[in-house]
Amino acid sequence: MAKSKSGQSEPPADPSAKKVNLRELAEYLGLSVATVSLVMNRSPAAKSIPQQTQQRVRVAARELNYRPNAMARMLRQQRTFTIGVMVPEISEGYAALVLSGIEDHLLQEGYFYFVVSHRHKADLIEEFPGLLQQRGVEGLILVDTECNAAISVPAVAISSHRQVEGVTNITLNHTRAAELALEYLAKQGHRKVAFIKGQAFSSDTEVRWKAVRAAAQVLGLSIEEKLVVQLDSELPTSQPGYEAGRRLLESKKPFTALFSFNDISAIGAIRALREAGRSVPEDVSVIGFDDIQSAAFQNPSLTTIRQPLREMGVSAAETLLKRISARPKEEYPRNIIVEPELVVRGSSGKVPS
Amino acid sequence: MAKSKSGQSEPPADPSAKKVNLRELAEYLGLSVATVSLVMNRSPAAKSIPQQTQQRVRVAARELNYRPNAMARMLRQQRTFTIGVMVPEISEGYAALVLSGIEDHLLQEGYFYFVVSHRHKADLIEEFPGLLQQRGVEGLILVDTECNAAISVPAVAISSHRQVEGVTNITLNHTRAAELALEYLAKQGHRKVAFIKGQAFSSDTEVRWKAVRAAAQVLGLSIEEKLVVQLDSELPTSQPGYEAGRRLLESKKPFTALFSFNDISAIGAIRALREAGRSVPEDVSVIGFDDIQSAAFQNPSLTTIRQPLREMGVSAAETLLKRISARPKEEYPRNIIVEPELVVRGSSGKVPS
DNA sequence: AGGGTTTAATAAAACGTTTTATTTAACAGA
DNA sequence: TCTGTTAAATAAAACGTTTTATTAAACCCT
Lengths: 353, 353
Prior knowledge:
2 copies of one chain form a homodimer.
Chain A: H1 22-29, H2 33-40, H3 51-63, H4 70-77, E1 82-87, H5 93-108, E2 112-117, H6 122-134, E3 140-143, E4 155-158, E5 167-172, H7 174-187, E6 193-197, H8 205-218, E7 228-230, H9 239-250, E8 257-260, H10 263-275, E9 285-290, E10 303-306, H11 309-324, E11 335-338, E12 341-343
Parallel strand pairs in A: 1-2, 1-3, 3-4, 4-5, 5-11, 6-7, 6-8, 8-9, 9-10
Antiparallel strand pairs in A: 10-12
Helix pairs in contact in A: 1-2, 1-3, 5-11, 7-8, 9-10
Chain B binds a DNA duplex through helix 2 and helix 4.
């Protein structure tokens, strides 16, 4: 009923129209399915088919609104142009940024992707790779997820630190990240620095912490046992950071700076500090990690170690697609290291005198 | 080489093992593929097959690590158990919460989903539904996305306000939302209220604004032309809100409260206010909208009108799956309305005297 | 006129399932 | 002994493509 507004290129695309398949299209044209298929795919084998016939085929295809059946062609070609992405949680600054990078590149290259979020449940982490592979994914991207399941397709892991045959690791230079943070704090005169470590399940936690200790040692900064707490709840909000901040304060040990595992927990910790009457950055300087989108808009805006999360996502997708279309035994990169960046904002400053 | 640690249930799942198909499994068993298929699917037609044979089949399947080919069975059954989800942007509080609700329900029911984000590009918005349908999705969920493309599968739209044949709308009760916000502000004594309207592309913008005007009228609150600005950039951050806040201040018109289109812009606006020396909530009360995860952890924590975003996602998925497995011409809900909730936090209070 | 190449198109196999209709043998009832 | 039923399994079609090998005609060259 409704008249097409554009009126030119678009066929009506009547949703009630019965789906037409290759056989019907071929019958309509008085040609064989083979011929029509060759033309539609612009196959090199179609070079002997005269332009006139090719036109005729394409016109008819448009006319009948022919859409090739994806399942049939996937089955035949043994290609799905689909990849699987595992993340701990979608509703979170970190994964969202990585995902947006992944998506950008994949869609551009004609791939679609399934996302699954496991919320740190061990059974899901082990089960998802199998389910995804059964669904025919041609590759897997694991975001902040250590997993032991058997993987028989190319895989790329973001922020994983185990060397696993068949998976490319994309990791941050944590040594540099720790140096950036601690050198900055030291330069501002801070000597009593508190730390919030990541949750045990987060794959960056241990590596990052080692790097921090090493950097502290180089700078002659001693790390007080009592000034180190660890995130423990798995809520994807600032709540765990808030709780960690409270625990830090309970120790009564004085500190003038806090380096937190990620931005989201830093934000929670700042709230705890404020509630205890310490202002940021006047009494305590706070540094987060990641540089999620909201970091710049916190009050005070958050000083942080930036991970190039979007770029890591893009790089993961690129590497994966390259591996998928490589020859079976071809070499592939085992490790890709990206560099952090210190972003100084309002939550940090000179040590109070 | 590596010995299996668990050593009991898990088969080795050797990734180098050649994939075995139904024919090979059947050959190995000395049975026909038909029999094996019936057993594997626990088809009712298998009731005449003796338990002993069934056991034999299942044991062999495990032994050879048989995994049915998803494409083949999708092709044969004409079912993909896949749905498509369109969002404006993944890296944003709003969509992330909705997605997590959608995912929860879909995975639970054995469906996977493709996500695509269109970033408000008109061509992508019109093109994606076709691409997704070509990929065989059995249904579509549109999140905050108005789209005219032809859709021939069941669809559910979240926060869309056009009545389109074939799509179920899940919308917030905006009338109630506006009342909640304005009644609260009025009760706190605010008479000079500023507003930040949503971007033109956001499907809630107009409906919400109408509701606000109606509520204001009922309360005898006049809306000053100069105290209404509109978000205009499409950045998925607080930047547009910040800019809107600045424009509001440029007008020099005094106001004691600000009702912003969403939390993310409210956060930006608060920054603009603070930069101009107005403190929140002492000088200006600010109310956001949505109640994204970070709202509670802002400084000050954000008073807001809560949309049950996760629940809306779950409801969308539920409704969609129900429609997918309904009989072709069966009735389906045209509209599902959800209720907002006022969440009072630190960014609002009594009018300054 | 006969042999080779090019052009235009097709037949048929293959991808890996599910499912309907059919076969074969065993068995019960008269 | 014959008929009809049940049990156990299978053959074969179907899903909708892609692709290889083949055919048939037309053309060119000597």
